[in-house]
Amino acid sequence: MRRDHLLNQIREAPDKIWDFIVIGGGATGLGVAVDAASRGYSTVLLEQNDFAKGTSSRSTKLVHGGVRYLAQGDISLVLEALQERGLLRRNAPHLVKNQSFIIPSYDWWQGPFYNIGMKVYDMMAGKLGLGPSEKISREETLRAIPNLDETHLNGGVIYYDGQFDDSRLAINLAQTAVENNAIVLNYVKVTGLLKDDRNLICGVKARDQETKTGYTLHSRAVINATGVFVDDILRMDDPEAKKIVRPSQGIHFVLDKSFLQGESAIMIPKTSDGRVLFAVPWHGKVVVGTTDTPLDETSLEPRALKEEIDFILTTASKYLKKDPERKDILSVFAGLRPLAAPRDNEQTTKEISRSHKLIVSLSGLVTITGGKWTTYRKMAEDTVNKAYLVAGLPEKQCVTANMPIHGYVKNIRFDTPDYFYGSDRDNIMEIIQQNPDLGRKLHPDYEFTRAQVVWGVRREMARTVEDFLARRVRALLLDARASMKMAPRVAVLMAEELGRDQSWADSQIKEFTRLAREYVLED
Ligand SMILES: Cc1cc2nc3c(=O)[nH]c(=O)nc-3n(C[C@H](O)[C@H](O)[C@H](O)COP(=O)(O)OP(=O)(O)OC[C@H]3O[C@@H](n4cnc5c(N)ncnc54)[C@H](O)[C@@H]3O)c2cc1C
User: Fold this and answer.
1) d(Cα 148, Cα 266) in Å, to the nearest integer?
2) Least confident span in 2-16, 47-61, 97-111, 264-278
3) Which helix (H) or strand (E) holds 335?
4) Torsions phi, psi of 168, nearest 5?
5) pTM of the model
6) Percent helix, strand, coil in the chain (nearest 5)?
7) Ligand 1 within 6 A of 337 CB?
8) Is the N or the C terminus of the chain less surrounded, counting Cβ atoms within 10 Å?
9) For 69-91, what is each residue's pLDDT tens digit?
């Protein structure tokens, strides 16, 4: 997956009519590119920033059916998500872990629903289930989560769901798409839509954000998979188009693992304002979240609000023996859900269905939004099924249900810090064998090596220090202060690989430090 090589393929074929152009390189767009390319359609995907820079690197990291949607009675969404959970675990076993969750039962709220509810959840997963849920005693609950608050604790329910690394999956999907002959490019922004004399969309205008070079690309169909930005593309098509998305912000923060001992995650099904809160082990730390705050603005770098941070701190303190404080937060990150715009002022964001929405405009623009990371594959299948009709292309069957994703390895062990590379681990080892200096760590407290930076540039299309520290490895999200210390070394290594000079490295360090400061809370 080399950017210059892929860009050349576009440059060398200025008159080519591609089958599909996909706008957006998050979970949705990458899924569509993999689906379309693996069916044999010629496909180009354009992402304005880095892959998964938007919502797709900012999730709770769960591959789940959604216990909350079950409680809301959204059965078809849960069924679909449980099916997809099973397929994703099978196709990307190097990224999706089977994670046990404990729902603690306190005498101030209803445990019984969840005893029965989780049995229904198991049944709905059928053969793709990850393990049977069970009611557990107070002692068993405390054994699983030793630092759970014991006051008024009755017992709990244990159940199983998937846990993953979102931006790593995005990178692996980009690689899978390229292996199936798609062209996927980061840092190429779509700036306009091309229309023919019947007013039908027949391509896009795009700009390389690095060189500022403009491109005109022709295609039979264009797919708008831009998450919370879908309305901007719909307005390029029709300036009068009604908004279909209302962003809803969710934040998470990351704590040291000492706040959640044991291997299990905690799931609080109903917080004081009716939301769900998770505390999930992730890469040796704990991710806690999330919130659901409607916003009017979209942004690639949304900021956590003070009231969101206070809400999670207060809620987590109710369940944990050791109360987390602002100074304990290693990193805080926010993401925007692309929710369907509410029907009326009465409907709250947590009531809006998480099902995906597929729209074909009069011009033929195909727009896909909503949904979840977990269901990205099904969303892609539905989208391509619609898009080939719009494009007037011959039908080709979807093949992704049983298709391994790049990095696939059987019998993966999750006890090495770099397990998430899957089959690429050996290639990184080889880089170290050729140059042992690259085996040195980037930070004394973390296992990330210099070789991973080299690999990220050569094979995973990392273009900036942020791409590497935020999405090729997750240092920015795991410990923002430590990631700032890693930045100078990463910048020098990247400059060497990319053929850039010291002033590029200096400006990268400056830019990354400015960003990482936003992930740290001042006391
Ligand atoms: C707080 C939170 C927690 C979540 N937790 C979970 C979870 O645990 N499990 C789960 O299954 N789901 C979860 N989700 C949902 C999931 O993360 C999203 O459904 C999914 O990431 C959306 O992906 P997307 O590709 O549609 O959007 P995005 O990831 O935002 O991708 C859209 C992309 O389009 C690009 N773009 C925009 N305009 C242009 C343009 N003009 N040219 C080129 N590119 C453009 C953007 O740069 C962006 O990268 C969560 C969501 C949030 C917010």
Assistant:
1) 9
2) 97-111
3) strand 331-340
4) -65, -40
5) 0.96
6) 40, 25, 35
7) yes
8) C
9) 887 778 888 999 999 999 999 99
CB-facing half-sphere around the CA of 140: CA atoms within 13 A? 12
Under DSSP, is residue 41 helix (H, G, I), strand (E, B) or coil? coil
pLDDT tens readout for residues 264-291: 999 988 777 778 899 999 999 999 999 9
Interval 378-407 mean pLDDT? 98
Number of other residues whose CB lies within 10 A of the CB of residue 501:
8
46 lines ligand 1 (CB under 6 A): yes
Please tell me the distance from the alpha carbon of residue 251 to that of residue 259, in angstroms, as a whole number: 18
Adjacent-strand bridge partners of 252: 289, 333
| CB 400, CB 377: distance < 8 Å | yes
511, 466 Cβ separation under 8 angstroms: yes
Determine the Cα–Cα distance for residues 286 and 275; give it in Å rounded to an integer: 19
The answer to whether the bond into 290 is cis (omega within 30° of 0) is yes
Ligand 1, closest atom to CA 53?
49
Instruction: Return the SS3 of 273.
Output: coil
User: From the CA of 517, how far away is ligand 1's center (Å)?
Assistant: 23
> Which letter does DSSP use for residue 30 in this model?
H
Which atom of ligand 1 is nearest the CA belonging to 290? Answer: 1
Across residues 425-432, what is the average pLDDT?
Answer: 97
Ligand 1 binding pocket includes 48 (Cβ within 6 Å) = yes
Q: How many Å apart are CA 119 and CA 107, to the nearest integer?
A: 21
Ligand 1 atom nearest the C-alpha of 291 is 1
**Which of 307, 303, 357, 355 is CA-nearest to residue 332?**
303
- CA 35 to mean position of chain CA atoms: 18
Does residue 14 contact residue 216 with C-beta atoms inside 8 Å? Answer: yes
Residue 215 contacts residue 183 (beta carbons within 8 Å): no
83 phi/psi in degrees, rounded to 5: -60, -45
Contact in structure between 263 and 100 (CB atoms under 8 Å): yes
**351 pLDDT tier (thresholds 50, 70, 90):** low
Over 427-471, what HEC string results? HHHHHHHHCHHHHCEEECCEEEEHHHHHHHHHHHCCCCHHHHHHH
pLDDT digits (tens, 9 = 90+) for 31-54: 999 999 999 999 999 999 999 999
Residue reference for tokens 């962003």:
247
Amino acid at 317: S
Residue type, 447: E
Give me the count of residues in the chain.
523
Tokens of 298: 């979209």
For 194, the enclosing helix (H) or strand (E) is strand 188-195
- Mean pLDDT, rounded, of the chain: 93
Distance 336 CA to ligand 1 centre (A): 7
